[in-house]
Amino acid sequence: MARCWRTRGGLTSRLLAQVGFLPGDTARHHRAVILDLLQEALTESGLTSQDIDCIAYTKGPGMGAPLVSVAVVARTVAQLWNKPLVGVNHCIGHIEMGRLITGATSPTVLYVSGGNTQVIAYSEHRYRIFGETIDIAVGNCLDRFARVLKISNDPSPGYNIEQMAKRGKKLVELPYTVKGMDVSFSGILSFIEDVAHRMLATGECTPEDLCFSLQETVFAMLVEITERAMAHCGSQEALIVGGVGCNVRLQEMMATMCQERGARLFATDERFCIDNGAMIAQAGWEMFRAGHRTPLSDSGVTQRYRTDEVEVTWRD
Amino acid sequence: MQAAGQGTGGSTGDADGPGGNAGGPGEAGATGGRGPRGAGAARASGPRGGAPRGPHGGAASAQDGRCPCGARRRDSRLLQLHITMPFSSPMEAELVRRILSRDAAPLPRPGVVLKDFTVSGNLLFIRLTAADHRQLQLSISSCFQQLSLLMWITQYFLSVFLAQPPSGQRR
Questions:
Q1: Looking at the DSSP assignment, which residues form a beta bridge with residue A127?
Q2: Which residues of chain A does B10 touch, with a Cβ-Cβ cutoff of 8 Å?
Q3: Is the ipTM of this complex over 0.90?
Q4: Which one, A277, A314, B36, B92, has least CB within 10 Å?
Q5: Which of B103, B149, B164 comes nearest A82 by C-beta?
Q6: Cα A297 from chain centre
Q7: pTM, 2 dp
């Protein structure tokens, strides 16, 4: 599999410095680079269009404009090359890539990113959502927290929060909201937005302390709901996927929980945690082998595509 | 300005945020004249150029919202844009129609831009209908961006496509 990256480096810093990823700008970026990327992938892998089995694309969830841009390319290439189309759920892409890379067989999955926070486990041909955020995703919480504290977006807010947290010494009590297997992060964000500047101005704590406290609090919430799901399912494996899964502190806390339960923790590095095309290809490959085909008439995109909407026919 | 993480209705296709322009690969824009060799350029006009005209020759997008095709809705606030785009062959026109029509809303509902794509010979007719001028502007921008991208793709891979047998069997 060719590994060609257009990781939005310069685009990331510029856009996040403003108000985050804007659908229009992101779509423009995708349109500008997609064909060169496609050609580069073919060249690097030494393949031609004749060698391609199918065209897998992200059907959702996500931002509408970028999804449509890529779907248009996928449909066109599929028509021109006369290849079948496979529309892939983005969340399932993360799961299947995580399973492939780590070798986990049937883990309880903690999917954490800027747009999604879910605890997922496989059962009877569906990736069932056992718990999720009832408001914003944990990555969204981290990014907006960084904006409040004016933390740099280069290379990413989450990474910088992680580095600053290592220097934090004081645990500030923040709202901890777990409801069964669901979590809520909006309260933490509101609290931080309300008191951060006052606390910093009075010297009550440092930005590093706040970063440390935020991580400890939100990650503890995630560990709790994951453990609850593992207990419910009798699972002995946990897998972390999604961009926030790169965070070493989250991995440490999850590892501690797994060790206490006699379970195994699986996690990947930033190459496969962060959104990437290879994970869509991997999930698309599984689906294609199982006989999934997306007819042109059904090749639209959907911004709200639930993980459990897909029938997972490639697993027993 | 769109807040991060908020989508803009992907099913309608007009998914650009405010301020989007008709940029993209090739920067085709709305004035036509640029495009891959052998394929026509998008232009919001009829065969003789000039003001945009619909497929039946009527003026498009009247200020009072009258539909140039003659249909008149109760609220009389519809805005329309008609685009006639020639291609080098009926096959190309039909290909583009099939691809773009997937993102068109199947049913009219408030706040959604209706998109109609039809083909006659090597001509692709696009009709965008909206009740709000701002939505129509966004949809026009999005439509031209997608057309521009499609033109770029076909230019890239057209030679392979034309070399395939007409019936094209799927694997």
A1: A122
A2: 60, 63-65, 67-68, 300-303
A3: no
A4: A314
A5: B164
A6: 28
A7: 0.78
